[in-house]
Amino acid sequence: MTTPKQVLIDTNVLVALVDARDTWHASAQAVCEALKTTAVSVVYCDAVLNEAIGVLGRRAQEQRRVAQFAGLVDALLHEVPTEIIVWLSSETQRLYGQVIELVRSTSGDLNFHDALIALGCRLLGIEVIASFDRDFDQVAWLTRVDTPEAIRAVCAQPPNN
Question: pTM of this prediction?
Fold first, then answer.
C-alpha cells in the first residue's frame, strides 16, 4: 500500500476559503473540494496559519470589517484545528540561511514565509502545493496546483517516495 500524495495548502487558498468576500473564494472552495475527493493527504503548516491570520487582520482593517475579524479567525481555526498543524517554526533557525538564499534566488518573488513554506515542503517530502501564487512555479521541487483539474492530474500520479 502506498502512502497518499501530500498537498500543502498555501495561505491564499486558506484565506480565500474562509473569507467569502475574497476574489478567489469560489476557486478555493473548488480546489478544497477536489482535494477531498482525491486520494491525498492535506497538510497545513504553522507558517501558513501565521501568514493567514496576518492577512485576515490587515484585510479587516483595510476593508473596515474589523467586527468580522474574530469570525474569520474562528472559521480559520475550524478549518485547521491545532492538532493537525505541521510545525515548521522549530526549523526556522536551522533553515534561515537557505530561506534567505531562496528569497534571493527568486529576486524577492518568494517572500520569507513562502521560502520557508517551500523549504518545509522539501524537508517533509511534500511535492505539491495548492496555491494561486505563481511565484511557487520557480521552486524546482514543487508542483503548484490551483484548479480541480490540475489536482486530479497531479494527484493521479504516484508519489515519488
Answer: 0.91
